[in-house]
Specification:
The structure holds two protein chains of two kinds. Chain A is mainly α. Chain A is built from four helices and no strands. In chain A, helix 1 packs across helix 2 and helix 1 crosses helix 4. Chain B folds into two domains: 268 residues, Peroxisomal Thiolase, Chain A, domain 1 (3-Layer(aba) Sandwich); 153 residues, Peroxisomal Thiolase, Chain A, domain 1 (3-Layer(aba) Sandwich), CATH 3.40.47. Classes of the chains: A mainly alpha, B alpha/beta.
Amino acid sequence: MAVATEQQILDGLAEIIDEIVGIDKSEVTPEKNFIDDLDIDSLSMVEIAVAAQEQFGVEIPDDELRNLKTVQDVINFVQNLQQNGANA
Amino acid sequence: MTDKTTVVVTGLGATTPLGGDVPSTWSALLAGRSGVRPLEWDGVEELPVRFAAQLAVDPAESIPRPQLRRLDRSQAIALIAAREAWGHAGFAPPVKRNRKGEIEQPAPDTGFVVDGDRLGVVVSSGIGGLHTALNSYDVYKEKGWSRVSPFTVPMLMPNGASGHVGIEFGAMAGSHALVSACASSGEAVGYAIDMIRAGRADVVICGGTESCIHPLQMASFGAMRAMSTRNEEPQRASRPYDKNRDGFVLGEGAAVMILESEEHARARGAEIHAIAAGCGYSGDAYDIVLPDPSGGGQAKAMRRALEDAGLGADDIVHVNAHATSTPAGDVAELASIKAALGPAAERITVTGTKSMTGHLLGGAGALESVITILTLREGVVPPTANLEDLDDEVDLDIVRGEPRPMPEGPAAALNNSFGFGGHNVSVVFRRAV
């Protein structure tokens, strides 16, 4: 899969979040914290991670998922994996 | 009369095969309309029964998709019915809690604000999230465990509806789900009455839900030979007390009531629709699916209900019967009614509303409680539909053809529900006068 730009990852993630928890795409901005700002629970985060894995072609292990607290964290994580090709 | 706390009904809600709310369901009942429709599934021709009483209104019309995808259909419709009952009772929109557990109070002047610590929930389901269990198993087989929804467990557990209702309305006095097959939500009403009498709650959201119209369920009940196979005339299939009845018709839906201590209801000036006077239970201790042929268990439940309500047989004017349209069950219940009420049974009216709604299993007791409350409040008994040729063994006054007006003044009515497992429950409602 081609490496996605930061904007493409943000758009893709916003779409997934809209679909799964019904938060408007415009609310999903890089600095937002999933729990504190977007009020997303942990099981929904699992669903979002599974959808993100399919969309971006990366693996997000459970212990990594715990560290992904903001939208920017996910963007960085996906970009890093796409560029380096492995869960380094 | 007894010295027990008086419990009243202040709100009603339902989504049924006859309508998406209580008023539309009630008007269809008075019109004698059937909610039964043919099933339109691929492969339906393989099934012994190819029709059911399916919901009139899809839950997707009122619940947005993101919320709906984490609710089993049985849970979604319980929420819809609970929302209607809550609004009907004149309560303010529920308090909201965010993921951090902080509580957001409703806007002022939007209705009475219920104290969450004094609010309970008893919402039952007989089967639980059957659609979820089976659909998730399909996903597992096709795509593996990691694609199974993380919400599968809360969606398939039979207490899920109770949990969701409790969360939505901030009910912290206790949230319960009694599971006793087709007696489940009759027992939910009984438990709710007891919660208020015991002083555990001032207000209880109680009811039942069921949604299991699935090929497996058609096959399973079909294998028991319990369902009507009148595939050529689905709307005429559910016909309690008719000579040509041949089994029950599966239905889906949810019904919810707001029960409240009379003191609490009067203090806030609430409209009282009926008095939830009492509830009686018994166990057949006979067979896992067949009712005790002597009818002793059913009669005991009715007698205990009267005793619990402090009423005599002469106070009863009407029975909303369990009457599922099975050849043996309908007449056995009439014998039980006569055993329980004695000579007073000659003067009552009986109706079987499953002729129109189908059999909601774990939702039946709650829906028929709502119907019994409306029957008392409106003073009119909905007819038993499809009753064309009365069974020779029927010797009580079954309302059929047209709705029948009831006498004015004090009146009480029983609502019977009996479930596989030998669970018998009878709830008594009194007219509010």
